[in-house]
Description:
mainly alpha
Amino acid sequence: MDMRSLAILHCMRSEITQLLERAAGGERDALDAVFHELYPELQRIAAGRIRGHKVGTLSPTILVHELYEKLAGSSSFSARDRKHFFSCAARAMRHIIVDHARAKNADKRGGQAFQVSYEETRVGDIPLDALELEEAFCQLEQIDPTLLEIVELRFFTGLSMDHIAKAMGVSQRTLYRRWQLARATLQALLDESTESG
């Protein structure tokens, strides 16, 4: 990347940061502008989290719109910069998907069917559904919140390891070690859950 591209990227980042600061101050139009600027990226991320959208399913567009409503309706929303915004977005998407998965499970017990097509995620050889993943994430957060942040950025935003390392201000080598630790810890938590279940 040449110097001009870096300068343009820096200006874009600082514009997003300024908008996020205004949004944290309660300016809804600033949050609208953030979503407008980052919408294609948010759509790509959402599409990577769910597949297919038959009638009654959670689609990438619905997920992004529910994300907007969740963040706009939060009195405590505050994102310092683009990286922090995507971290908040990843966590909110995770909760939205889990809420829909819970609704699906409740519907199986007598309500109307509402299908969630959650992208299969694997930790080791175990495919996870949204509720299993949520339980493992909650346990991982108690063990080490930084490990959870790495997993969220990887699973829910689809960022490359290089981008995550830069966003977190660590070397790629450090990030890969922490990623391996996060995966191993999640695997152990899931194994424990399977054995006790």
